[in-house]
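Annotated sample (chain length 151).
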Amino acid sequence: MSQEPSAFECRRCGHCCQGEGGIVLTVKDQERLAVHLGIAVAELVAQHTTSKGEKVHLGVREDGFCLFFQDGCAIHPARPDICRAWPYFRGNLLDDSSWEMSLEYCAGINPNLSHQEFVRQGLEALRKQDVGVTGDPDAPCALRLDGIGKP
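Output written by the structure step:
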């Protein structure tokens, strides 16, 4: 039996690792990353993040890339949930126009599959990684799965 083509395979291009202010760290993300780096959460927050209101954002370098991007993700096993979820963000799952724009942005998204198959594989990938939430109004919008069912 042949295996289905994957909807997404990371090419390590870094496009999703560039852009200030996009990576909001949840408490769970902060704890996981601090353990991975062998430092206290307070030290992680002081050295590697910025705050905007009540939200804690992963810091970026002067060139706009994530502090931890070095020819790929240097913290991949401990990366934040929002990074784990890419490209299976709420907008890309709900709206085929958003998905089509993502195809232009991210070379890792398979353009030969339908949006319906992208959604099916995306929901499966999010569940396997325990990423994505329902019923949590404080969760990052990109990770909210409310109203998204199997196509």
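Annotation: The mean pLDDT is 90.
Annotation: The chain has six helices and three strands.
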